[in-house]
Amino acid sequence: MGIISNIVFAVILVLGVGYFVKNVKTLIRNIKLGHDVDVSDNTSQRWKNMAMIALGQSKMVRRPIAGLLHIIVYVGFIIINIEVLEIIIDGLFGTHRIFSGLGVFYGILIGTFEILAFLVLVSVIVFWVRRNIIKLQRFWKSEMKGWPKSDGNIILYFEMVLMILFLVMNATDVHFQTMQSGNVISQFIAPWFQGLSEATLHTIERTAWWLHIVGILVFLNYLYFSKHLHILLAFPNTYYGSIAPKGKLNNLESVTKEVQMMMDPDADPYAMPEATENDEEPAKFGASDVQDLNWVQLLNAYTCTECGRCTSECPANLTGKKLSPRKIMMDTRDRLEEVGKNIDANKGEFKDDGKQLLGDYITAEELWACTTCNACVEACPVSINPLSIIIDMRRYLVMEQSAAPTELNNMMSNIENNGAPWPYNQMDRLNWKDE
Amino acid sequence: MSETLNVPTMAECMAEGRQPEILFWVGSAGSYDDRAKKITRAFVKILNKANVDFAVLGTEESCTGDVAKRAGNEFLFQMQAVTNIEILNAYEIKRIVTACPHSYNTLKNEYPQLGGHYQVQHHTQFIEELIHSGRLKIENENTFKGKRITFHDPCYLGRANNVYEAPRALLQTLGVEIVEMKRNRKTALCCGAGGAQMFKEPEKGDKDINVLRTEDALQTNPNIIATGCPYCNTMMTDGVKAKEKEATVTVLDVAELLATAQNL
Q: Which of A57, A227, A320, B91 is geometrically suited to a Cys-Cys bond with B205, CB 3.0 to 4.6 A?
């Protein structure tokens, strides 16, 4: 039996980790569908951002209740996962609690895990109550129907079950309980199983042990299909997040080139474009689909955990407009997934599916409701920038499709004609002085 | 309304062979919008009072392109930017002060990459400097004494560029009671005008953003809603009208408050 269970364990472990690695590769491939963007600057500031925002949760605690609960779950999960190391060694080599030889230190370690597991369990239950009983508004917006709603709850159930299994596993471990060290929480659970034979206890303990590790592997693989990916992607995302002042929008280089040509008095208007070695297609202005975005924007989309802090601070959304910055990120991710699957189904080539991000996912109405106020960018606890996607899509609407609202077209022709968004004569620009 | 303001243009300075200390970037709103022109004049009065050697571009100034860029017309933005930068660089401008956070943001953050490198300040930052260095003294500190003032953070000054304290520091010099709205500084709610919204009807919804923001402000029971942006000024003024509070609540730019406190 011993050797067989070791082999079974090894197989499950390899399958679990292997499938996850495969999906991570797909994830990276999909993110790389975005075009390149230079993020090599200011590495020290970037590391600092990652340390503060992702590792240090600095923006989470701006909302103290959710922030504190989140820190408990976050710290709990990281620390308790040290235990997984022991589980893996035990599983592969048929040992039992291999580190228990560490004596007092082991007791302290497991004791800490138990306390954290208990706190995580409580926090997760509070999270569930906030979502389902108190019904916090941001979890009940229109984009949170169906799968996103279930996803949020499934994650919480996973965490509850994993924590309970961990505590039950300890509580029914007769050997561990008799050590009387480290069973800070499980000693109170152990009496529930009083009167059961040692063999039954052992069965329960083994079952909990197996379910716990299998559960962890299943949860690991669930990440890719879930908003929960943020537990990994928050780190690169905060590193690659913008370090410029929030008001700064990028300048499109493709446009700069054209403007330079137009402004150059020596330019020959009839000149043929120089034949370059890489005969590129003329650059598309703005974005109508995910491939037109840059890879940081796509990473943003996968990182979004749908907490809705952005949407709850968006002035457009607060006043009943269709725009929800969270939906912008979710749509971008869903479309990217669709494109990724299309590529997988067509041997590595994207086959036109007659769909795109603009129109099929995000409507012009949503895009035009944005005031570019940066409230969403400021609110995001993991440095996601929905505004940059909105702007790129507006660029496509205006520069490729001339599809701006009429009033904006008027405003723009005013600027073209008289250098101001209003129809006033440029020569009257200084009239205020004498009025 | 017709006391003469001393407003030299860059062209005049050039003709006289001198380089002013700062360029005052008036912006399109500050040049043409009736309400914003009052802010422009108030700021110039302060500049004149403090004997600041400044100039404007006058008819050579053109829209920074901020609204075009945010509406998605990068092409028009860059055309505007390149034209403005050519003029600014020809005059060898080093320092720019503007009373419009949108111009401020664009000049400071988006022009450098296109060849326009300037030290750019919002007028509240510049006035704060004038007071600090003793060039400007508040003479009638009691003009607004006892008034309750709430400050509405313009997005393009606050969140966009992290300038939260300069306007508040100026209000402090007036001996007023500053009452903060629930949403202030980083979490301040937009007035609804940014991102080219100023020039179009809002999308369908159940409320106008400026009304919601005005409600935020009115909750503090203010006598005055202060702000530092011509667009915010318009939106908040409209909001106060929509709430029928114009008899008791005035919307003023920080520069206007200071100019009034100086009897200017």
A: A320
